[in-house]
Amino acid sequence: MGSALEWNAMYSVKVESMDAQHKRLFEIIRELHTAMRSGHGKEVAGEVLGRLIDYTVYHFAAEEKLMEKNGYRLLEAHRVEHRALAEKVVAFKKNSDAGSTGITLDLMTFLQHWLTNHILTVDQKYGEFLNSKSVR
What we know:
The protein has one domain (15-132): Up-down Bundle (Four Helix Bundle (Hemerythrin (Met), subunit A)). 75% of the residues lie in helices and 0% in strands. The protein has helices spanning 16-37, 41-69, 75-97, 105-132.
């Protein structure tokens, strides 16, 4: 799982601000993974998941604002995907705060898959669109 949590050029949407934010999401998820592998997942789950939620909200708002400003026609579908992820991560955090779960392999697999799949499929489309409008 480690290498899949590393940023590389294939994830670039060629919009500098979005690439920087995506890199930060990778860092936070990698932090969760490192804690889990070292046996400290439950100890740091709430705090790190809280930061992940906060940063995700920030990132999604910035991404959606950029798409809206440039008239991206798939914005609503993109918003639906964003809401689904946010709801799932909030549910994981609630379970973690209640003490019912720590950082589990299911959570890590979900986050890794969602982030990489979302960037490689959905985000690449807006990247191409924004690049065509000279947004870099």
